[in-house]
Amino acid sequence: MSESHVRLAIRRRVKARAGQLCEYCRAPDAYSPASFCSEHILPLSRGGSSNFDNLAFACSGCNAHKSDRVAAQDPLSGHTTRLFHPRLDRWSEHFMWSSNYLQVVGRTDVGRATITCLKLNRANLQNLRLLLLKDGKHPPTDD
To answer: Is the predicted pLDDT of residue 5 greater than 60, yes or no?
Structure first.
């Protein structure tokens, strides 16, 4: 089997594992005008690999804001902390939805740093969440 087929097969598995939602902001792939990607949790530039366990399904916005970062500053404590790791962490342990379900709220230093770094409450995401909420498709049922 060629390398391109292996990569495509892995990308499909990454997407299926994530339930077709960005593993950071929880946006659904089906409603995005931009393609989602298999994002390297530990970036290649920092010694990461392209194996299944180091890949996360991510929207283009989260992928771009994360870039090669693995840590960011917690806005509450001011300390630098690691970012949310979709393979090691549970989303609901580090994040929750605001009372109106339009914003992601950090429960931990990791959550707050990730929200700030990846800009998980960008305006376009809040607009999408509002539309999906009105249609009964937000928040995701597994949060």
So the answer is: no
